[in-house]
Amino acid sequence: MSQHRWQLREVRLSLLGLGVLGLLLIPARSWANTPESPASTEHSTEQQAAIAYITLQPQPVPSPDIPSSSESVQISQVALPSQVVPPSSKPISTVEASITPSPALSQVTSVSQLSDVTPTDWAFQALQSLVERYGCIAGYPDGTYRGNRSLSRYEFAAGLNACLDRVNELIAAATDGPTTEDLKTLQRLQEEFSAELATLRGRVDALEAQTAKLEQQQFSTTTQLRGDVTFIVADTFGDRANNTHQDDTKDETTTFFAQRTRLTLQTSFTGKDQLTTGLQASNIPNFSSQTGTQMTRFGFERQGAFEDNDLFLDRLYYRFPVNDKLTAWIGPRALQPAVFLPTLNPLVGGPTGASSRFAAFNHTLYRPGFDGAGAAVSYKFNPQLQLGLGYIVDNNQASQPENGRGIFEGNNLAIAQLTFSPSRQFDLGLTYGRKYFGNNTGFNLTGGTGSAFARNPFDQRATASDNFGVEFNWRARPTLNLSGWFGYTRAHQLSGGDNDATILHGALIVAFPDLFARGNLGGFVVGVPPKATSNDYRSRPGAAPREDVDTSLHLEAFYTFRLTDNISVTPNVFVVTAPEHNDANDAIWVGALRTNFSF
Known about the structure:
Blueprint: H1 2-33, H2 38-41, H3 45-52, E1 56-58, E2 73-75, H4 92-98, E3 116-117, H5 122-134, E4 151-152, H6 153-172, H7 180-192, H8 194-217, E5 222-237, E6 256-268, E7 274-282, H9 288-291, E8 312-321, E9 326-333, H10 337-340, H11 363-366, E10 372-382, E11 385-394, H12 395-398, H13 406-409, E12 412-420, E13 426-437, H14 452-455, E14 463-477, E15 480-493, E16 500-513, E17 521-535, E18 553-562, E19 567-577, E20 588-598
Antiparallel strand pairs: 1-2, 3-4, 5-6, 5-20, 6-7, 7-8, 8-9, 9-10, 10-11, 11-12, 12-13, 13-14, 14-15, 15-16, 16-17, 17-18, 18-19, 19-20
Helix pairs in contact: 5-6, 5-7
């Protein structure tokens, strides 16, 4: 019985051993027969990177009596265990030898090794703290900083550079500057981003140099068209004047309606120079023949050499800087002293303001009696002092090669003016001009104003004159401006005699800018037109001298309504008492209504 029991136990143990052996062999065989999936043969980049963080440590080599298959693997660290890696067919020692760290995710020990700077980096957070504390970065146009976005190293360096500049400003201003901790942070950031800061500053310097070069050299030739159109309704009232002591004659004028159109082309080749080309057409009359005196002339009338509404070249000259202080002009047509010298009467002349020719400026100097061709320079010693020099010839004679004409023998003017501006409110000009007129060349010593004796003291004989002027402009208040001049001329007869004549004139102008409304201008003028106060010349023995024994007064009032920036209306009236400085002549009144369009 006991023998049967031991046999039963042996059978049970045998079955149990076979079962255990089956459990051990079946999974191994099943694993070996399982086909490999693509995931087990082609590892992703993340899986390969994960393997880089697995340290494989084999046990010591077994003794000869222990099979090599008993070699074991110990995993000491798994950095990224994202997937189970199937066993390799290679021996463990071979797998260990083939594993090297991935360069893309090597450990980073310095910010200088980063390719960009993210909001989680200490450098980003340090700069963000500085920005919030010192306001060194303005942010986006909508007022946001957007400090949660990654920056390239150069973007980060630009922000760091702005903070460095801001901190330097605070230190220089001796205000509550940065703390010691902030200075240490900035120093560390400078060290970490020294290469990018140097590159950034080098690029900025290069860009500034290129910009300066472009500003100096690259300029596209441009031409601006400017224009103004004047409509005028006018008439004179009073008997025609005589240049004798006889009684005057009747009024020979009637109301007229006329226009003047000017187009000005302003061309620049460098951005600092200007070529001025002016075209004009007009039918506004010079009615001195109807009134008997040039004291009644307008300052914008048609030039006598052209018919009504003929289009002609009105101006042509070129201005350019020689250096920062010296400016030059050259031109063959209408280069008048009023172009290159300050007339110190800024509010009255032009298409608005006073309409009379006399009220514009000192005509003996600034309008020499002919349209000029020549050259001029202006030198600015400092903001308070400048000197202007010019030489011009009658442009109708400058182009003629025969004797008595040309640029040296034709009618000419050499002029100099020293302008002194001790303050922004006051300007003073001292002017000298030397004129020459040849025999029978249309004498006009006083620029188309004044009496006949003042304009032509020696009856068409060659004449030289020394002309002196004192001009001023005083901006007493924003709504009050005073200006004026005094002129003295000493004329000398050069042919057919040796005589001298003295000519005097002057004016005072009071202007009221923004009178009654912004942009409007009111004013009045009081003056004495050019007068020959003495003259040695006699047309024949025993004849009366060509000098003025009485005195005319010029009285004028005007008001300019500024309707828009481009349209204005100016009613204007002036009166000349004792025209031609002759008490035998009754006063002549001139009334005008102008509308000016500018564009």
